[in-house]
């Protein structure tokens, strides 16, 4: 058994909304190149596996049949379907869109299967994490919701409880809505407050449907939240709710757009903090789930200096060969990245571990992040049997 499995195929680069669109395939290309330059593909603990073919039945595990037919129709005709979010500025119609989007679903489902069957402890799909797509509509660059499909596959294979952790700057609204009434799924989203960022959802008072109350956990952070306060917020919520929920598997989304250089959000979370949080998710998978962890990509639009660095380090973490923050970036990759983008890449993966203050050191009512954390704890913790102030 390999420690980690990376789902990869060059065809992933065909998920392409066209020139000028933020969801550029170069994000994936540069990540794969960087992982290769670091020698990760030579590690015995990492297995790179091509993506199996997808089917409409697989996509329909989380999407309405009429919607899948509409995507196929828009793909064939080139005509928009604005009611279903197809042909908008966010989700332009492009040739081959159904196959490209369904390939992401197939990859994330294969990742879920690998962790559940024991073929690998951890599995990674850096092209996945399309967390905004809903059962019957595209949204926010997301045509099909591969993250939800991975969760559903784990349930279908016998998981009693699955935790979905979303660290993207944007609320994981699509996954939350698909499992809103399912008590077997815990969704935890740490994001910029929806009052200041798309999709405008993710209020801490939104805690799940009647049959699944307190299984939706939303941490809505103010703009400009920095690395130290972001880690404080993640630590104040995530370990406690996961340990109380006791999942059989964890699916996590690691969009990098919380970074201060990202043009699509207003948080200020550095690479080192994002990798620290990823390591916490990894450790919780070992503590609670016998290692069963599916890690996905997601948003992230700083194509050179953020996305490939975070996702390459995510692959290394999954393979149990973590990269230190000060690790120099290989010159062969820096040269290729500069030629592709015209930008001068950073020289090192990150800087240094972030110094942050744990929640146990006390609540500060004058701090907007602390107030946001407490709002989440007040809405969710009592229903989980936890004390919002003490736990």
Salient structural properties:
alpha/beta
SSE arrangement:
Blueprint: E1 2-7, H1 26-37, E2 46-49, H2 56-59, H3 65-77, H4 97-117, E3 120-125, H5 146-156, E4 162-166, H6 173-178, E5 185-192, E6 216-221, H7 227-245, E7 249-253, H8 271-289, E8 293-296, H9 307-318, H10 331-341, H11 368-380
Parallel strand pairs: 1-2, 1-3, 3-8, 4-5, 4-7, 5-6, 7-8
Q: Which CATH C-level class is it?
A: Alpha Beta
Give the % helix.
25-40%
Cα distance spanning the termini: 37 Å
Low-confidence region ranges: none
Q: Overall pLDDT, averaged?
A: 97
Named at the architecture level, the CATH assignment is 3-Layer(aba) Sandwich
Strand content: 5-15%
Q: What is the alpha-carbon Rg in Å?
A: 19 Å
Which descriptor suits the 3D outline? globular
What is the fold named in CATH at topology level?
Answer: Arginase, Chain A
**Number of helices in the DSSP assignment:** 11
Explain what the structure shows:
This protein has helices at 26-37, 56-59, 65-77, 97-117, 146-156, 173-178, 227-245, 271-289, 307-318, 331-341, 368-380; strands spanning 2-7, 46-49, 120-125, 162-166, 185-192, 216-221, 249-253, 293-296. The mean pLDDT is 97. The protein has a single domain (2-384), classed as Histone deacetylase domain (Arginase, Chain A), CATH 3.40.800. It is built from 11 helices and 8 strands. The two termini are 37 Å apart. β1 (2-7), α1 and β2 form a beta-alpha-beta unit. α7 (227-245) packs parallel to α8. It has an 8-stranded parallel beta sheet with strand order 2-1-3-8-7-4-5-6, with helices on both faces. With 391 residues, the chain is α/β, with parallel strands linked by helices.
